[in-house]
Amino acid sequence: MVRQHSIPALVQIPDSANLADVVSRRAADQPQQVALRRSTGAGTWQDVTASEFRDEVTALAKGLIAAGIAAGDRVGLMSRTRYEWTVLDYAIWTAGAVTVPVYETSSADQVEWIMSDSGAKAIFLETAAHEAIVAGLRDRLSTLEHVWRIEASPMPAQEPGQGRGQGRGQAAGDTGDKAPGLDMLAADGASVADGVVSERASAAGAADLATIIYTSGTTGRPKGCELTHGNLLSEVRNAIAAVSEIFSAGGSTLLFLPLAHVLARVIQVGCIEDGITLGHSPDVTNLLAELGSFRPTFLLAVPRVFEKVYNGAEQKAESEGKRAIFRRAARTAIAYSRALDSQAQGGRGPGAGLRVTHGIFDRLVYTKLRAAVGGRVQYAVCGGSALGERLGHFFRGAGITILEGYGLTETTAAATVNRPSGMKIGTVGLPVPGNALKITDDGEVLIKGPTVFGGYWGNSKGTAEALTDDGWMRTGDVGELDDEGYLRITGRQKEIIVTAGGKNVAPAPLEDQVRAHFLVSQSMVVGDGKPYAAALVTIDEEAFPAWKEKHSKPAGATAAELRDDPDLVAEIQAAVDDANATVSRAESIHRFRIVDGDFTQENGQLTPSLKVRRNVVAKDRAADIEALFA
Question: Which is nearest to 57 in space by CA: 102, 19, 103?
Answer without folding.
Answer: 19
